[in-house]
């Protein structure tokens, strides 16, 4: 039913289960018969012992028969007999009981065999016997029951149906509570399955009796026992590992977890006389015992199951506890590093042995840098991620894993948490990142261009915007309310006096925003194109070949494939493309120098144009200043009705002043015409 490793030696046969780690050891002196036959998985070996147990191993090749047959003859003094199964397809035959096996035969050939230890229930009807089986969780399809029709016989006094059922029940794994329990523990808190249960201890099985469910657990299904201290140092976990698990509907419980308080004591009396206790338990138990409840339960279980109790080893976390607080899937729990594995409690419980671990990994926390994730991957490919572990636990856990010689995927420095994160931040990059390489190359080129252009074209951009020079003129040119404010500028109120200063401040903030977009113009189409990196040159040359090798490949898959090919490329081939990229960069620098020279000539011509425009703006501002003054002087003389025409008056004055615009631009240093009497009066005011 499970994979494992089979070892044949002179002393006997040893099989270790890969899933559970359980070891079956068959001594050579116990072997009674060996059968070689063809089965579904190639060929199989069936071994029968003298005490009636049957062991079956599948997965052999036909060519291995001679080797095994010679080995059995030489060391076990057994003939490895060849027996083929009957494949006629008949459904009537003879049932034979041999040891722990029920064999349905047609003639001398077996059709199928049923290990009676897999039978969970046997019921009888009229001329019929029904066998129910334990469900195998590892199989996709499980056989649940088989019905046998038993024809009536003429013999008196013997019911063939009852005889058949008794033969099955004598060897089957059917739990029947006969007699009194050795001891009973009342109302124990159970985490899985959840609830409070009375635990009744019988000689061969454990009975959990709850308000809703009952479970009967044979001691043969107990794999391991664990006694684990809680982080609060006030409680204890007692964990029982089961295979096969107990079932409730579709739920499987592979672990039975009991939670005890350390302060809870009990006095226990076994339901046996002292001689029976001494004979059966050989001093491990006494008739009358007292102590902590968790000690009594673990002591009784250890004696009955006859297995050692596993406790945490020498690991000690940051807070002094023997466990680490973490989260697995959606629930928070405790991870215990043991001497030979890890166990996590409690929802869902997980036990991982060191011998089934492929590697462990320390990963960055997904939500915060104050914690990290501890990942374990088994040799079967199963991955367990324990998240939200405090960063202070990193050093202790790393030292423990290192001491146990487990393979660490991202081994690096551990002097500080920051360094360790940097180490395994890069380890996740399994593929070549073409985009990142290209961005790095372009960043280098930008820095070089910035250094080259700072000597020449940088002066032009500095001169294009001169703060503090002719601020008032520009304010009147671009401010929509410039004329209105200037016309009322000579008013008597303090509000009018404050307005121009306020506007000048606003314009100063606005001015860089006006000029800023002019400095960020679009790319010059005549400018030389930046050179490509070595990877991009190779990709352009190899793109068609990759497409032909992988027809129908998408753009994203093509990029991934190209990254893999580039990463796998030899150093010599990469150097060839690096040389081409270096040549392209030199050509670009040469072209850029020539372009910057020609661009500087164009910059000087643009400087002259800008100076002319500034002079025009200045002249226009002077005109506006004179007209605004005249309008302000005339407005009080004409009265209130004329004051409403101040805007129209300014606009008409602007249109009339346009005629003298040409004259002002030609002769910049000429004196302005003498003002009228009204203008002079306003000026004196």
Automatic annotation (TrEMBL):
Molecular function (Gene Ontology), one example: nucleosome binding
**Main site of residence?**
nucleus
| Key word DNA-binding present | yes
Bias kind Basic and acidic residues: ranges: 569-603, 614-625
Task: Spell out the Pfam families in the cross-references.
Answer: HMG_box (PF00505), PH1_SSRP1-like (PF21103), POB3_N (PF17292), Rttp106-like_middle (PF08512), SSrecog (PF03531), SSRP1_C (PF21092)
Q: Which GO terms describe its cellular component?
A: FACT complex; nucleolus
Q: Which residues form the HMG box domain?
A: 528-596
**Where are the stretches annotated Disordered?**
441-534, 569-685
Q: Where is the composition biased (Low complexity)?
A: 480-490, 627-643
Q: Which stretches are tagged as biased composition: Basic residues?
A: 500-518, 604-613
Where does it live in the cell? Nucleus, Nucleolus; Nucleus; Chromosome
Residues annotated as coiled-coil are: none
PANTHER family named in the record: FACT COMPLEX SUBUNIT SSRP1 (PTHR45849:SF1)
Summarizing the function annotation, the protein's role is: Component of the FACT complex, a general chromatin factor that acts to reorganize nucleosomes. The FACT complex is involved in multiple processes that require DNA as a template such as mRNA elongation, DNA replication and DNA repair. During transcription elongation the FACT complex acts as a histone chaperone that both destabilizes and restores nucleosomal structure.
Name this protein carries in UniProt? FACT complex subunit SSRP1
Q: Give the species this sequence originates from.
A: Brachypodius melanocephalos (black-headed bulbul)
